[in-house]
Amino acid sequence: xxxxxxxxxxxxxxxxxxxxxxxxGVILSSHNLEDPEIFDELVDSGLLNLKGALKIGEVLGxxxxxxxxxxxxxxxxxVERSAESFAEEKKEAEAPAAAEPAAAPAPVQGSAPLAAGxxxxxxxxxxxxxxxxxxxxxxxxxxxxxGRSAAAxxxxxPALPQAEASEKEEDILVRSLTRKHFKITEVRRGPETxxxxxxxxxxxxxxxxxxxxxxxxxxxxxxxxxxxxxxxFSNTIMDVQPIxxxxxxxxxxxxxxRVFDDVVMVVSGTDENGVQIGEFGSSEGFLDENIMWGRxxxxxxxxxxxxTNVTIKAKMNxxxxxxxxxxxxxxxxxxEIREALKKADESLVVGTETFEQHRHPGKKKVVVVKxxxxxxxxxxxLLLPVEPVGVLGARPNVDLGNVPVVVSPLELLDGCIHALxxxxxxxxxxxxxxxxxxxxxxxxxxxxxxFAGVVLxxxxxxxxxxxxxxxxxxxxxxxxxxxxxxxxxxxxGNNHIDFASHIEQIGKRGIxxxxxxxxxxxxxxxxxxxxxxxxxxxxxxxxxxxxxxLANNTLCPEDAVRAMYMLKAEMSGEEIKKxxxxxxxxxKSQNEELISNVTGKPxxxxxxxxxxxxSEKFKEKYM
Amino acid sequence: MGKGYKTILLKQxxxxxATALVSVGDEVRPGSLLAKPEKLGARIFSSxxxxxxxxxxxxxxxxxxGEQPEDFVKIEPEDEELLSFVRAAGVVGMGGAGFPTDVKLxxxxxxxxxxxxxxECEPLLAHNMKQIMEQCEKTLRGVEYCMKITxxxxxxxxxxxxxxxxxxxxxxxxxxxxxxxxxxxxxxxxMGEERAVVREVLGKLLPPTALPSAADAVVxxxxxxxxxxxxxxxxxxxxxxxxxxxxxxxRGTESQVFQDVPIxxxxxxxxxxxxxxxxxxxxxxxxxxFTGHAVGMDEPITKTxxxxxxxxxxxxxxxxxxxxxxxxxxxxxxxxEDLAKKYNxxxxxxxxxxxxxxxxxxxxxxxxxxxxxxxxKCLNFKKAGCTDILIGNCSDxxxxxxxxxxxxxxxxxxQTDHVFETVGMEPMRYLTxxxxxxxEAEEAVKEAAPSEPQGGEESxxxxxxxxxxxxxxxxxxGSGRDIHIEVV
Lengths: 623, 488
Description:
The complex is a heterodimer of chains A (623) and B (488).
Chain A: H1 5-10, H2 39-44, H3 56-59, E1 63-64, E2 79-80, E3 112-113, E4 119-133, H4 136-146, E5 172-183, E6 186-190, E7 194-196, E8 199-203, H5 206-212, E9 217-225, E10 233-234, E11 237-246, E12 255-271, E13 285-286, H6 287-290, E14 304-312, H7 321-343, E15 349-359, E16 364-373, E17 380-383, E18 395-396, E19 405-407, H8 409-413, E20 417-420, H9 431-435, H10 438-444, E21 449-459, H11 463-480, E22 484-488, H12 494-507, E23 512-517, E24 535-537, H13 557-571, H14 586-599, H15 616-622
Parallel strand pairs in A: 5-12, 6-8, 12-14, 16-21, 16-22, 22-23, 23-24
Antiparallel strand pairs in A: 1-2, 3-4, 5-15, 7-8, 9-14, 10-13, 11-12, 17-18, 17-20, 19-21
Chain B: E1 5-9, E2 19-20, E3 27-28, E4 33-36, E5 44-45, E6 50-55, E7 59-64, H1 82-88, H2 101-104, E8 113-118, H3 127-134, H4 136-150, E9 154-160, H5 164-173, E10 180-185, H6 194-202, E11 217-221, H7 222-234, E12 240-247, E13 256-262, H8 267-273, E14 284-286, E15 293-295, E16 307-310, E17 320-326, H9 333-342, E18 345-352, E19 356-359, E20 362-365, H10 375-383, E21 388-391, H11 395-404, E22 411-414, H12 417-423, H13 443-446, E23 462-467, E24 472-487
Parallel strand pairs in B: 8-9, 8-11, 9-10, 12-16, 17-18, 17-21, 21-22
Antiparallel strand pairs in B: 1-7, 2-4, 3-6, 4-5, 6-7, 12-13, 14-15, 14-16, 19-20, 23-24
Helix pairs in contact in B: 1-7, 3-5, 4-7
């Protein structure tokens, strides 16, 4: 469709194509031109061949030499370019009465050579009322500085690059977090919950207390699944959680955290009619066929599962109290295990690792914005519990109105999010994901940036609320004074509305922004804006779909690396190439290649669902 | 009501229905006042002699007496002002809009124009041209009355250049009518749209919400002008209408003009007068192929009826997935959906032209006849899974649709296809003629013709200031062409 003058100006480097039939002799304006945004589709459909097309900026004001039909690319032989095409076209709403240019043409030729190595060339075919003023001493100095034909295109001459103020190599340690690891080789049931060496015992009968703790929980079973039992049927996996506890009075996000290795809590369940807790796309089935091992949010191969199977009241599976009750009941058990871990003897520590949060003033300030689900029902997240991924002390982000909450990278890595997300399992971030969040880890260790922190923002159900929270995100980043930001999201579709809006709010404040989401085929963005130029797709699936394999399409280290390079490129003024119209997995592999060319080492890629035995469900639905 | 009756609608114009002044049993004659407006509206008169048989909220039904008089009841204007004659005669815009003419002409156009719309733009319609051939002088006098009423010093008759005979006829009389000129229009649809006439003649493109008075002009249909003359010279109220009957008729598909048809005559009676329907038919359109709508045989004609067209049966699209492209030139959504049903297609997607603006419930085109591009719309239809599309676009937009739809595998149907098929005309698809018409600089025309807008070359005064870090050199160019400035 025809475009406005302003739009033409912002797309002056795009190819010029007639939107409609235009007759010979017409002076071309934006109204004659098709919107470049649809060219990809037109080319794909065989409607358009852009070969030889002039740019929009080159044809505006030019004269069409031949009557042409719609979708004709304007090539040099079709357009007599006007002098104005070298300069900006400024159309007033009410154009003044046209003066006939041929009325009194005064042929003028000019060439004003400048001193000292530079030449200012002026050619004027015809014209009148021409004044040229050049204060000679200054112009002579200015010309070489310009050194480009940019002046002819009506742009300001580029300023001489200012010598960067000498940077201070500052490195400030803000806080640190130590994880002490306790190894588990066996989980068994017994009269008391305790840790003996590497054997964890869970008290028999604890299920009843867990059930009684929640009104709408009707039943709870604990299954201890060892690696040799992975081919076991399970209802949909609602969460995968590390079992961790703070040492002494230490607060979440600093001090010492104790954590079990090789064992995870897994929450699963149905309502009393056997309906999965999840509206569409659930991961029920044989565990070994439905879990993408090793993803940040998933169990690792070799982990022992302490899996609860919670039965909640009928029809509560889709209401907010249902999933919350399943999680809370499970946490009764986890909490008792945490207490055992808290008392464990220091001698059982098999290893420690320390995360340090550094600030690098003088470097570009970067913030990670993580959009988390907040639509209600099972889309909720308990923020900042007392214990890692606990329930006690946490506030559901839905109750906080989904407004942005700023946390430190170490709080995030210390389990400050207890995730209640269970539909669309392939792209949702489990609690364990945040515990091992690859982008935060990437940013934490990068000395070339000043990683300021993490902003968590919920994704509300209602559009008006989505824009409410995204405006807060924009303002938060403005106040932080960020130079760059990542916006990540989980899931796809509904949440892409606020995902896009976050990027717009951040981008319009002049902050460089890279978006990360599962998109590919099925999750193609439904909305967009002009700030959504740098995007990283978290897809790993072969077909580019939400394939219900737990955590398959979540953010992995390889995505974090690409995103980081993309943001750095943006912040240093490089242009991100425009995305192709259709999902093309080779864009990702090209970027990985570019990165490994620089780093000298390959970007390590994770496996996808093709490494798993294929389930009957998968065969039916996706093959 | 069938033969022997006339159903005269109380709303034949823009505004509120008129209030009936007669009662059942009243004797009436042609020209008897039947109803008067209370708000915006126009008077309604009987078109026949007889007795009021029935009175409803929407119509007065008159049982005709056997013998019909030659004469009619003359109007009695409240004073001798010309405008009072127009009001008393119930004149409304006869091109189809039905705006009360007395209200329209209540203007002071001291420096403006009366633009006479003789575009007769809807295909097949021919009664306006026939009027010019047969009542040229009276029509021109009507134009003069309109000029007098509005104080306009000039009038321009906008007529398509292809009507050479009619233009010759007008030119014969123009020397006796100083101040009246002719502007030639290209043979494209739509040229008769009010703002299109203003744009073509005066070179001013008005926004869809503006009236021609914004361009110091009034646009008035050529038949309306004649009715103004009749009101003033003959004290004749509006109770008849000129119209065209065309299509699948036993007498052939050639357009047949019927002049001064009594209002209230049914569509069926007129089709009989035109020879009757020739076999199976698709629908009967009241109005033109673009803006008309389907009616039954009993529909009475009104002051705004222009055409009655009987069409061929519709081709069966066998439940094809059809996209509708709405625009101001063609039928409204209701009409398009009606056609989709008749084509036996399933409406799968509805898109509106970028230039179609909703003005009080009616789509108006921002720039009638000049396409804003349609490729995106066609892509949208394709994406929605359409196999066929139905459009009612103007010549230019239709041409643009043809630039992309067929290559996308969309079968294009135009709202006028079944009509054109009926009369053996080529369907509307590609545009091959120019939008420009060479205006004649004849003696008779020259005097009144307004200055033509210079569409072509223009250059604007522009100032560019390029600032450098170290200083400033400025170049000012008042006007010119072929200018290159380069720093190397």
